[in-house]
Amino acid sequence: MPRLPENFVLPAELMPDSPPSPPVRPRDAATVVLVRDGDSGIEVFLLRRVTTMAFAGGMSVFPGGRVDPRDSDVSVAWTGPDPAWWAQRFGCSPELARAVVCAAVRETFEETGVLLAGPDAAGLLSDTSGYAEQRARLESRDLSFAEFLAQERLVLRTDLLRPWANWVTPVVEPRRYDTRFLLAVLPSGQLADWATTEADHGGWQSPADALRAWETGEIALLPPTWFVLAELAESGSVAAAFAEERTVDRVLPKIIREGAVLRLLMPGDPGYASETDTVDPTDPAVSR
Predict the structure, then answer these.
(1) Where are the stretches annotated Disordered (predicted)?
(2) Distance between CA 241 and CA 235 in Å, rounded?
């Protein structure tokens, strides 16, 4: 795993003076690292969240969001690795794995217009613009993802996704997420946009360019986004990234305050084990 640079700090207001006790249980979430091959190698699609968002406002992120209870609907037409396969990779129940994968595909469609589904097990959509109304209804929660797929006779293509990472928000924060990261390639013919109420900008960048933009202060990144970009910068191509055999370990960082800034301690860092912000044993982030 790459190491965070020394100048990676977080604003002090991110951590409350009195952390919640017991820690807030993290909500399950899914993030999709959407990739394509560009002229100079692999590229990723990043969204800049609007500054009014309660969580990660102004940050450049991959598309994703919370798991909706309806994402666990077993009626979803599904092809590719089954929920048990995903559960083994992510270290959770098949029921949760199903919901995470459905949430990942749903959120990607809501936020970028990219839909990882097709008319059958081998087909793919080359144009999703005809589903603009359904996309808006999904975002407003007037329509469930299972209902959308059933109405349009579409099949979820889980073979287009790969498990990549699992990050859990530090226990001192009042908003916490247990987020699974999945890698997905942009289907041929489809276009990614940022026609969502949650973002004010979006676009494709090479991982190296995105990291340089962070270095110069052009964009702001959360630690998990930085790490994924640093990992992909070493891949070179979509094929190389998809061929990588990864072990998805749950990463639970800790936050320490240094004056007006916060720094992140990663598992294995000096001082990580001695920090006192240990998790509550009932926290699902460590008890599952």
Answers:
(1) 1-26
(2) 5
pTM of the model: 0.90
DSSP secondary structure code for residue 246 in this structure: -
Token pair of 168 as six digits: 């859990």
Domain-wise residue ranges, the chain: 10-287
User: Which of 252, 257, 116 minimizes the C-alpha distance to 188?
Assistant: 116
Cα–Cα distance for residue pair 211/233, rounded to 1 Å: 9
Per residue of the chain (288 residues), give pLDDT as tens.
Answer: 778 888 888 777 666 677 778 888 999 999 999 999 998 899 999 999 887 666 667 889 999 999 999 999 999 999 999 999 999 999 999 999 999 999 999 999 999 999 999 999 888 999 999 999 999 999 999 999 999 999 999 999 999 999 999 999 998 888 899 999 999 999 999 999 988 888 888 999 999 999 999 999 999 898 999 999 999 999 889 999 999 888 899 999 998 888 778 888 888 888 788 755 544 443 444 444
Rg of the chain taking only CA atoms, in angstroms: 19
CA distance 161 to 174: 31
> If we measure between CA atoms, which residue out of 214, 288, 222 comes closest to residue 250?
288
What would the two tokens of residue 244 be? 């990588």
Q: For the chain, what's the residue count?
A: 288
Residue 255 sits at φ, ψ, to 5 deg, of -110, 135
Query: Is the Cβ–Cβ distance between 34 and 192 less than 8 Å?
Result: yes
| Alpha helices by DSSP H, 140-187 | 145-152
SS3 for 56-122 is CCCCEECCEEECCHHHHCCCCCEECCCHHHHHHHHCCCHHHHHHHHHHHHHHHHHHHCCCCEECCCC
Which amino acid, residue 53?
M
CA distance 244 to 232: 11
The identity of residue 174, as a single letter, is P
